Predict the structure.
Amino acid sequence: MPRPDPQHTPGRNSPWEWLRRLHGPLAPVEIAPGVRVWLTLTYEATAQALCSPTLSNDPRHWEEFHSGRVGEAGLLPLTAPRDNALTSDGETHRRRRAPLVDGLAKLTARGMGQEITAITDRLIDSFIERGHADLIGEFATRLPILVLSRAYGLSDGNGLRLAELASRFWDCDPATADPAAAELEAFFAELTARARRWPGEDLASWMITHPSRLSETEIRHGLMSYIAAGNDLTAHLIANTLVELLADPAPERGPVLSHVDVGRAVRRACRVRPPLRVWPARYAIQDTDIAGVRIGAGEGVAIGFEPAHEDPALAHHVEDAEHTLLTWGAGTHTCPARSLAWEITEQGVTAVLRRLREPRLALRVEELRPRPGPLLNAFDALPVRFVPGRPASATRALGPGRPARPRPRRRGKGRAWLTRWWCH
């Protein structure tokens, strides 16, 4: 499968277009060394794969899962079957999803806008006087988790530690991803037990008292999946939107940034640089047909978000039409936190454009280093420069509690995620 490329642009030279011409709506690829799947390459195939009742989210239907190669490739923390809504189907999925949907509805009703604004201002205050910053490490990866920390009733220090652990899932390095998964599960086991003893106005407490009567394991795995998916993808949607806006070095574009339609900019980033390039797979529970391609029972269908949004068949749609975006999935497994993720992204991007004077990338886009692993459209860092400014408020700690001690992040060696083909 093609590797993430900072210079990637849609068009005839795109590797996805080359694969479409060679294979049609789905291509047989290795999503990681030795892990074979069908990859959706068109909008129609992707939408159909997301909604098909003959494809399951439970990896126990997947032949590759039982081969051991998924674990060797570092995909296990993302794809392992857990007692949550993400990897279940049917009535079990509905029962596990309902508490999270209802809990998020309570947060929305309570209103998160002022909370998000306060967090964005404090984050920007921490670097605005310097005139330079890493908008991923110092802003984008911190904003979503600090918002989610409020929803979980956590200190900011604990939230930042959880974000660092969840981020390791996406690098697909078993040396770091597997221990991170174990530590996350232990944390949420303790959080669930504490919420049961001392309930509060938070997601864990609401899930415990929900009429669905989830088990301890279901609550733990549900909370864990939301952190694992929600923080990194929202963070890199913020960052990728900023890359698209700041990539033009022309000095005259400075005043234009203050009048940007941020919603449209986010929609464009979803289309041309979606944070999730490919989701590992859905799994055929029987022989089935996706966009005219026969999929055998037990085979995996990887969801190609990036190739779907580049499909030339979408050219007749309005470029920023939200109804054509598949970024948050489709069908019964559509992301339940879409509205909150969108609000965090829009407010985060708006705050950067509002607070930073004459922001510009410190490196060319092609010099930005992609995150390791085959799944994300994400960068390790987003260095920017701007005219130094003044904090909006007096310097304050990021939140209650003692911040977790930073731990050095272990990196696996870069892998050559080469395109390979297999035949039936």
Q: What stands out?
A: DSSP finds 17 helices and ten strands in the chain. The domain at 15-387 is CATH 1.10.630.10 (Cytochrome p450).
